Amino acid sequence: MARGNTRQRIQDVALELFAEQGYEKTSLREIAEHLDVTKAALYYHFKTKEDIVISLFRDLTRPIDELIAWAEQQPRTLEAKQEILRRYHAALIGAAPLFRFMQENQATVRDLSIGETFKERMVTLTQLIQEPDFPMADRVRCISALFTMHAGMFFMQHVDGDPEEKRAAVLEVAVDLVTRAHQGARG
Amino acid sequence: MARGNTRQRIQDVALELFAEQGYEKTSLREIAEHLDVTKAALYYHFKTKEDIVISLFRDLTRPIDELIAWAEQQPRTLEAKQEILRRYHAALIGAAPLFRFMQENQATVRDLSIGETFKERMVTLTQLIQEPDFPMADRVRCISALFTMHAGMFFMQHVDGDPEEKRAAVLEVAVDLVTRAHQGARG
Amino acid sequence: MARGNTRQRIQDVALELFAEQGYEKTSLREIAEHLDVTKAALYYHFKTKEDIVISLFRDLTRPIDELIAWAEQQPRTLEAKQEILRRYHAALIGAAPLFRFMQENQATVRDLSIGETFKERMVTLTQLIQEPDFPMADRVRCISALFTMHAGMFFMQHVDGDPEEKRAAVLEVAVDLVTRAHQGARG
Amino acid sequence: MARGNTRQRIQDVALELFAEQGYEKTSLREIAEHLDVTKAALYYHFKTKEDIVISLFRDLTRPIDELIAWAEQQPRTLEAKQEILRRYHAALIGAAPLFRFMQENQATVRDLSIGETFKERMVTLTQLIQEPDFPMADRVRCISALFTMHAGMFFMQHVDGDPEEKRAAVLEVAVDLVTRAHQGARG
DNA sequence: TATGAATGAGTCTTCATTCAT
DNA sequence: CATGAATGAAGACTCATTCAT
């Protein structure tokens, strides 16, 4: 039973349980039981419970940071912004459990000595897909484009239809929102 | 020290703290201290901690239920749907702390023997502002209209500008989304 | 709804619940709810919870005290002792719930500032149906006569047969035990 | 401060206190203090307070189960039944505190998700020392034999005399009761 | 006679965390 | 790498009791 991947397994189980039940309601005992180790074993790999969640965050934020870094170097054209949305959409799908966890545990995340950081990233991202001189409604459109994808990710479960088609539609609407914002600003 | 309103005061303080810190992280001790009564006093007015949150919910859902009931009797015209959005927007603003609590404690709310009910209401509401034969993208637009208002409510804090203007812009975008969905379906 | 019998009703309900669930596990709230009054009302009629149980005891012990008083004036003949058993048997049947309560809450009753008293009475009673110079086995027989009736009262539920016949048999065995004790001592 | 035996020590102290003061009136705090550990330590060894009592029960019932198993394989002769009584008497003496606890906490034990089981065992045992076609009085004698030993165990404290002699007398009377029941049935 | 509102002490239980082995 | 045993702090909840009205 040689295992060198315990740390990873802890993260996996923790993410799953945090997302499903919430951070506060998930005890280390529960995580340990799912892994068939003792609570003390968790402490070999992570200094505290918060540490686990923080490690999860780093994994979540790295792709976003990379996306932001990439976005910041793009020209502020509509086309670039559309690509940002496409990449964000892909990131969202690729890390669904992490985003779900974020979305459902906002209160907890807030004072996790890291929380602000996430909202900051979101703010940065919205700024990268709008322009400062947009009228307010168009700025809202750009912001809404992002949240359409977020909410879509979870609420769309309750809508009938082919998952692939639904995902595509969500992206289409987001892109369209940003596009209209730019046309509105121009026209 | 006027008495007779303790129940109400408990609800007020609880809502404030639940919204601010999250349900799990808010202890009854804390609520009691804020009110300058003992924990036991809370139990005179509410059977359990969950009971407090449930009572809060009833107050939250009543306006929504009324809105839904009203909406169900409207003709399925674009104009009626726009009015639904306007009314929902007003409800959102009128009960901001409650929605904020909901938004930030989704994981908790979920297994609160009442959570499902809320999501059901949201589903119903989205159905009332779309049409079953819409193409998927337009259905997403209608759903997005709702979530634009939700997210807007909280995320817009991070955007500069006159609060009144921001609120108006959020509503405008929401209404526009539904409008376009209907024009798309028609055109 | 004029009531002058609340005190009595409290005693009735309390006895029933104490016997059924035990003294400690029966809360005043529960008693009050069964009576459709508030806890505070109980305090109008009884100073404390213990007070209720003590009042119950007085009712239980009065018949026994009378029996003992009567027994003490009888000649120490076998016939008189048989009559004591018959009367005790009748008392047991007449106040079954009280005895059941006693039997099932011995630990509680013990430090109820009254408990010792009851055991004393039992000791006295056993002394009245035996003789000091009896051999030990015959003294045990006399004591056993009493406990046969006690246990019989509750354990005999688990034995098939006509209740009347069972009761008679229990009394018969008890009387026989004392009778044999006396014959043994004599013979 | 030898460790490794904590679980056993908890059981010992708990039994002592439960028997002395009753289950409900014995708090885990009290048990912990007697052992010079924290309450939480108890929870490392037992899942709940009830769990402690249940573990105590298993130890109590095992000897009885063995006795019953043995008894069921004996011929239904008077001699075998006398031996059953002797063995039950020995078991009673060997596990006096456990029986005392049972006897004095019947109300509590009843809804302990294990209680019924004990009464069942007692019923089984009484059936093994009587015969179905006995007249009622003789069946009562057999039952009484068992309860003579039970009550004797505790009530005999209040009778003067050499403990050894008293114990012997109790057994003698119990055996005699069963013997007479069988002679009566025959004669 | 009774209630509505509240208290203070205490209950069982759970948790994150520690540390010797 | 991991466990067994334990802790201290805190949590939700219950209870007997009180008292002004």
From TrEMBL, chains A, B, C, D:
UniProt keyword DNA-binding, yes or no: yes
Q: Which UniProt keywords apply?
A: DNA-binding
Q: Where in the chain is the DNA-binding region found? A: 27-46
Q: Which Pfam families match?
A: TetR_N
- Looking at the record's lineage, which domain of life comes first? Bacteria
Task: Name all HTH tetR-type domain ranges.
Answer: 4-64
Protein name as annotated: Helix-turn-helix domain-containing protein
